[in-house]
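Q: How would the structure tokens look for this protein?
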Amino acid sequence: QVQLQESGPGLVKSSQTLSLTCTVSGSSITTNYFYWHWIRQPPGKGLEWMGAIGYSGSTAYSPSLKSRTSISRDTSKNQFTLQLSSVTPEDTAVYYCTSLIDWGQGTQVTVSS
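A: Here is the predicted structure in token form.
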């Protein structure tokens, strides 16, 4: 059974960098052909795909967020990390890490002005 768990601060100030970590258990993030994603849902809005890191370490980002987003991984800890820079209150959302098959429970991040 694959489990994903997000962790990180629930409150970030505007202009700072948001950093979240996803810890994966039950599967290796280097498993062939698996991609690991970050998706968010702002209040009252739909899901927004932010980016992903693949089994080989390759990354892909949403064009609208690419300039502010970085996804990296620590294979020794079986974790992958999201960094979103220059945040504004519009980045307030529930952030999910997912393989698109299995999902974390989500973590609320609020950006204060």
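The first strand starts at residue 3 and ends at 7.

Strands lie at 3-7, 11-13, 18-25, 35-41, 48-54, 59-61, 69-74, 79-84, 93-98, 107-112.

Upvote if useful.
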